[in-house]
Amino acid sequence: MKISIGILSFALLISCATKKADQSTLINPKNNPEGVKGSIVEGIDIQNNSSVIDKFSDADKIEKIMIFLASDELQGRDSGSEGIAKAADFIEGIFESNHVVPYFSSFKDTLSNFDKTAYNVVGFVEGNDKNLKNEFIVIGAHYDHIGILNPEGGDQIANGANDNASGTTTVLELARYFGNSKTNKRSLIFALFSAEEKGLLGSKHLANKLKERELSLYAMLNFEMVGVPLADKDYLMYVTGYEASNLAKISNTYINEKLIGFLPTAKKFNLFQRSDNYPFHLEFNVPSQTFCTFDFTNFDHYHKVSDENELMDFEHMAEVVNKMIPVLEGISNTATQEIKYN
User: Fold this and answer.
1) Which terminus has fewer CB within 10 Å in the chain: N or C?
2) Superkingdom, according to UniProt (predicted)?
3) Which pTM does this prediction carry?
4) Are 189 and 138 in contact (CB under 8 A)?
């Protein structure tokens, strides 16, 4: 999410230094056959057992992904760097392990609007209904961050745990669910964007490319900074552009609780235009919004080297995944065009 330093100075406190994650626990993206992948609980019909969905993701699964994505090994995941290339390989491995196939000729789609070699990683789960599978839902997050900073000594790596390894992990867990369950009637594109930090370039590239191919987009759901809970709210997440569409209302209906609420600060700072949902809104004019739990009071480490895994709430992140599963199933399976701009 692109938030100016001036805006943040209005709301954020000075960050404190945190210790690095134990590098001995890092996941090797090429040689880790377990841990971050695996099929759904065998022998249970997920579509008819909500208790399985409630515990599909858990803190351990989330942590294993986050430990790698926010590790020093990736050097802050700056677009075009060796570190983010390792992240792309890691994402591709999770897709492959969970029956998510490339949407294009390969998972890695090279950006056409960035001066270094950078990739979106784009996977696909085809819808299972002949009447709906040609309508698409894009589920996205950016996996890049700002790389190496230059403070006077000490930590120099902006690991970007909350921004946006957290959103990336959420998308990967949702891809793991739908890649194995195949419960979606509409087709799902899982897109991890590069170069968001350079001006939403990855999402601009993909939105333009899909528009040129005349893709029928039903909705775009983006996940950004979901690593820590909202402070003193009676809802789990908010969506940017809350009043622009009925996405929040529909989401709450499918989960049968107040999952999504309205955050006035998000409207004040126009966060709707500051993340990867926005290019899809511009190209397709369908509900394209970002789900977030950063509320300007609960996290003061934005774009700092202190944005580390030690600050993340993995139980909270698992709850986000598990509660979004029935929401996405509802959105993907309802025959009528329920989601719309107001």
Assistant:
1) C
2) Bacteria
3) 0.89
4) yes
